[in-house]
Design a protein that fits this description.
The complex is a heterodimer of chains A (374) and B (258). With 374 residues, chain A is mainly α. In chain A, 70% of the residues lie in helices and 0% in strands. Chain A is built from 14 helices and no strands. In chain B, a hairpin with a 2-residue loop joins β1 and β2. The N and C termini of chain B lie far apart (45 Å). In chain B, 33% of the residues lie in helices and 29% in strands. Chain B has a single domain (3-255), classed as P-loop containing nucleotide triphosphate hydrolases (Rossmann fold). The chains are: A mainly alpha (374), B alpha/beta (258). At the A-B interface, α9 and α10 of A face α2, β6, α3, α4 and α6 of B.
Chain lengths: 374, 258
């Protein structure tokens, strides 16, 4: 116990609260930092490569140098179309493939960010963007729109899906919120949120089954919508998701350190100055909005939001300040990879939701078993 | 920093946990809080730290009501080691202790040299430097508690609240941590409020003791005055023998085995 303890100049003198932070900031843990930057650079490069490859693949194959030339010309505004073939290429790229590819990448990114947020807030590695019943709510909304044949006008199915998702989210939060608990943190515990989400999702999925039963000939439309697809996505779809993604990511990264502290438990986080109720509610809404907008545009795509944060945690560790950006990039890459396979490699396009579940499920089993073995 | 508690009341539904409790805590003192299970010890700490909002009464930090302070200001005044030391994600020990600097680091800033020096100094003092790069989830209960204790030290607050902070440590480490607390009080004139169950440790280390029972203060005062057979029987309902022990240089309590 005889240690040379030097308390001077370190602890503030009894009672004085200091707000000053004197010295210039020095980056913590340099090697980990540069490793992280290298990974971000690597995966951004891989994602850009994947976008180019995906652009070149499909029913009409376009050579990559040609794509690069058309993109550069478009970017600098002097697109000179020399031949009818180039005209076709430009139309294929800008009207068909690029909106689909970018929508897909943005959905992958948004689902992954949402997954990180849900796992962090609910302190549960099994949580994903759909834990709180957002997908069931969206599916129920979309089913109603299809059943009432509102899907004929082009916006209404996504709008109904989004409304269904939001209504579900607020109902789940309302259900798990207990106004009688007086603590800073109590009232929104992860267990009650998960339980409410499961109950509401179960009711809604029974409701969806009932709608399918009523739907007669439209039942196949409902089923296909639920399986998820990026076919014939427009620039409009992309911009909607992109705006949500940018806002969601900025909010998430702003509170990433608070999210780290929440994993210490609510008393500890609160004693370190985290306003738990505010942060939980804000991030919960952010994550759910991201999931809702994805579901409303592209249907239910499972396993991306569950799997990507797990895989990225092997690289970055649990720190959300690193986990969030890298998950976003890796999620965009993986979903684009899957969509390119179903669009351009497989003989028939199968719904993306089925492909991600069929490939993501076994990968998750493998990761899970590996972590069990220690 | 002085803490004044006035007519504090708190209940869970219809069950009162704290009833009309008033007391004060002053700097340069090690307070021990003892009492039977369910006597409101943890709730009292939760109310002092602002984690729970009282039904009645108030908690004043240097004359300011704690409910009017921002979470950041509270975090710079009070640090808490809670009973629950379970951490869900595999952060490294160093990262967990760095979290203790959270109230001093701006939202988008990196930790500065002072923060990093403080973290390594605290790890040295508490003897966990060798665990620095280990994952917190892989440590034993006692090792985790030492990390959480180090995190609270790192927070550099004038008031330190400990809720059974040593419950899983062996006697060597418990004494080591108590020694650190004593040193801390001597150097920074801080206030330490410590909930513990071991009467003999409390008798040997605490300056003042507060006995809680059914949400009220049963007895409080200087350790050497307050530890008596009568108080212990009143509070815990057990027979005991209290005598001054030469070796410990403090009063010690002995219980009969039936």
């Amino acid at each position: 116990m005889e240690q040379n303890i030097n308390w001077e100049s370190v602890a503030p003198a009894g009672g004085k609260i200091s707000d000053k932070h004197p010295e210039k900031s020095v980056s913590a843990a340099m090697p980990a930092d540069s490793y992280f930057k290298a990974m971000v650079a690597l995966f951004s490069f891989v994602l850009l490569g994947m976008i180019l490859i995906s652009l070149s693949m499909g029913y009409i194959s376009i050579p990559i140098p040609e794509i690069a030339r058309i993109l550069v010309n478009k970017l600098f505004g002097n697109l000179e179309i020399a031949t009818p073939l180039e005209e076709t290429f430009a139309a294929v790229i800008f009207d068909v493939r690029l909106p689909r590819i970018l929508t897909c990448a943005a959905v992958g990114a948004a689902l992954s960010v949402s997954g990180v947020l849900f796992q962090g807030i609910l302190l549960n590695p099994l949580a994903d963007p759909y834990t709180l019943g957002v997908s069931a709510g969206a599916a129920f909304g979309a089913s109603i729109a299809i059943l009432l044949n509102l899907g004929a006008t082009f916006v209404s199915t996504p709008v109904f899906a989004f409304a269904g998702a939001c209504a579900t989210l607020f109902f789940v939060v309302y259900l798990s919120y207990s106004p009688s608990s007086k603590g800073i943190a109590s009232g929104l515990s992860s267990n009650s949120l998960i339980l409410s989400g499961i109950i509401v999702a179960a009711i809604l999925s029974a409701g969806i089954s009932f709608l399918k039963f009523l739907a007669n000939e439209q039942v196949s439309v409902i089923i296909f919508w639920l399986m998820g697809s990026f076919a014939s996505k427009t620039w409009m779809n992309f911009w909607v998701i992109f705006v949500f993604l940018v806002m969601g990511f900025l909010i998430a990264i702003c509170f990433a350190r608070d999210l780290n502290l929440i994993s210490l438990g609510d008393r500890a986080a609160s004693s370190l100055g985290v306003d738990i109720k505010k942060v939980t509610l804000l991030l919960l809404i952010t994550g759910s909005m991201l999931a809702a907008v994805c579901v409303s545009v592209s249907g239910i795509i499972g396993f991306v939001g569950l799997l990507v944060p797990h895989m990225v945690r092997f690289v970055t560790g649990p720190d959300n300040r690193r986990l969030l950006p890298l998950s976003m990039i890796v999620g965009a890459f993986l979903l684009l990879f899957a969509d390119t396979i179903t669009r351009a490699v497989l003989p028939h396009e199968i719904p993306i939701g089925i492909l991600t579940a069929l490939t993501g499920g076994p990968v998750f089993c493998w990761i899970f078993k590996r972590s069990r073995l220690g | 920093m002085e803490i004044h508690i006035q007519d504090l009341g708190f209940s869970h539904g219809d069950t009162p946990i704290i009833r009309d409790l008033s007391c004060s805590f002053f700097p340069n003192t090690f307070y021990g809080i003892l009492g039977p299970n369910g006597s409101g010890k943890t709730t009292l700490l939760d109310l002092i730290s602002g984690f729970l909002i009282p039904d009645r009464g108030q908690v004043l930090l240097d004359r300011t009501d704690i409910s009017s302070l921002t979470p950041k200001k509270i975090a710079q005044a009070l640090s808490l080691v809670s009973q629950n030391y379970y951490i869900n994600f595999p952060f490294s020990v160093e990262e967990v202790i760095m979290m203790g600097r959270h109230p001093y680091i701006d939202r988008f800033a990196h930790p500065c040299q002072t923060d990093m020096d403080r973290v390594s100094q605290v790890m040295d003092i508490t003897g966990i430097s060798h665990l620095k790069h280990r994952k917190i989830t892989e440590l034993s209960g006692g090792e985790k508690q030492r990390c959480i204790f180090a995190r609270a030290l790192c927070q550099d607050t004038p008031v330190l609240l400990l809720d059974e902070a040593f419950s899983n440590m062996d006697i060597n480490h418990t004494l080591h941590m108590l020694g650190i607390i004593r040193e801390l009080i001597n150097k920074t004139k801080g206030t330490v409020i410590c909930v513990l169950h071991d009467l003999n440790l409390a008798a040997a280390w605490a300056d003042e003791i507060l006995f809680l029972k059914n949400g009220t203060i049963q007895a409080k005062g200087k350790t050497s005055d307050i530890i008596t057979q009568e108080t212990i029987e009143q509070v815990f309902n057990v027979k005991s023998k209290v005598e001054f022990n030469e070796y410990v240089q403090a009063k010690q309590v002995y219980f009969k085995t039936i």
